[in-house]
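Instructor's aside before we start: the two examples that follow are unrelated to each other. I chose them only because their records fit on one page, so don't look for a connection. First example below.
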Amino acid sequence: MRILTLLLLTAALHAQPSLLTIREIDAGSVAIKLDSTNIVNKDSSLHLRWLPINDASCPVQLGDFGLRIRYRGSRGFLFGIAGQAAATQDIAAAEIVMVLYDLWGRYIRTLSYLTISPARQGAELSLDGTEWVEDHDSERFMTTVSYVDHVRLANGKIWKANLPAVLAKVNTAELKLSEAQLAPSTPGK
């Protein structure tokens, strides 16, 4: 009986809910400069909104983190990662998920950024990802919710996000999201 009680107590300690925090960051104007005279959303007073979610137990913590739209001439528009993420332990790889919303708070799509570059405890992660944007998304994009989904530690252990807790935290920001939308979009589908 004592062994069973000890096992149940140990399981209860490891099943504690994750401590998640969400911050709102004003990431500047939604205007997108095409060239020296043409600007999309030029007269808008709206600003990009970044909502990084951090789990206290995660080996990677997000700073001011989100997406910006960049115009690449005849190639069109790109979502570009902006901001910081730092390792709190030695890591081998990390996956960061970004959920995009329009100016009405409606879901657009989910993107994933994978870095397979080792980072020592305290180091900033190298972030340089881009993703093509459909033209109509470039005009209506406003909010990025981001969170760390997976981390492979340098010792081989894998940390995984508590997705129900992430979803609950997103819902506090009054955005519409389902658990299925937490998964990154598959190109071509």
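Example two begins here.
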Amino acid sequence: MCVRCIYEDTLPEDVTMICLDMRSFQDPQRDRNKVNHVGTHWRVIDGIVHNRLFQETLHMAITRIREVLAQKGKVCMITYCNRGRHRSVAWAIILDHVLMHMQDLPTPALLMHSARDTWSFGACGECSVCKRPSERRDQALEQALQMARQMV
């Protein structure tokens, strides 16, 4: 079943769902330094921000958000990948950060990770390293924000 089909019936009619497929980004499952962590880890976030597809995908997401806001005013963003532990989690955190700091975009009301219950299977389950504030994570999030601001 597609992501849209799972969630669409639960949304009010005045909310537009935007689904972002993150499967085209490299799967951290292939990287020994990232495989045992989830998308909250600084290396996963940094890897997404420095991916060759990042700016194009960020631009597409922000453009789509602005289009929806001009028409309806309410947006539900869903990021997904294969397992919901790395790429989609990192993207949700990045988008949350960008939306909180861009003045013409809405502040996210809620950030949820629907696959959080599966994080302990083959990953750290959000260990202390993934939870801990990190200067490198903050730097990657700020780079994403600067890129978003240049797209205005």
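Helices lie at 3-8, 42-49, 54-71, 87-101, 128-131, 135-150.
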